[in-house]
Predict the structure of Sugar O-acyltransferase, sialic acid O-acetyltransferase NeuD family.
Amino acid sequence: MNGIFVFGAGGHSKVILDVVEKQGLHQVVYLLDDHPESPGRMLRGVTVVGSKECFPIHKGKADTGLVAIGNNMVRRDVARWLHDNGAKFAVAIHPSACIGFNVALGCGTVLMAGAVVNPDTTVGEHVIINTCATVDHDCRIGSFVHIAPGTTLCGGVVVGDGTMIGAGSTVVPCVKIGAGVTIGAGATVICDIPDGMTVVGTPARPRIGKHE
């Protein structure tokens, strides 16, 4: 069993630790976290040894890891810093996840319990396919994407880098979603969405102001 590290010591990290433990391919040997009160804390018997700046000191124990941060941009920045300092990244797949044929998963990607990724789908790096989310056939998912619990992406959907697809959302077939998009929880996406837009509702429409 190979030793790995996990960056993050919050709620998302608890889920990642559970996935790694149940997958049975790796053992988490230390945690990193940038919160000033985190060093010395323990999760599932694993100690937070310090911030990411401590990685060069500890990478002799494990230089391969996972970034357990739900926020896409924070996850991206941490992953890039760790990569620039010599880190490599694993892929974690819960045993109850279902993966079809000819599926490609980028490094750092995690599939939570009940996730489904169907045939001929490509998933980028450091993607979260969360609990009971479904990504159907022939989808193209960019890097640093978060597909939240209970989301359904129908066949042929394209998702750009850094996009957040909120819990319980549905995206109809062959829709193209740009980079840096936020889709609100429970939305139904029936048409293409350009880069950087936030959409909410059924059908999903641009969110113009917080009271609209």
In short: Residues 11-23 form the longest helix (13 residues). The two ends are 52 Å apart (CA to CA). The mean pLDDT is 96.
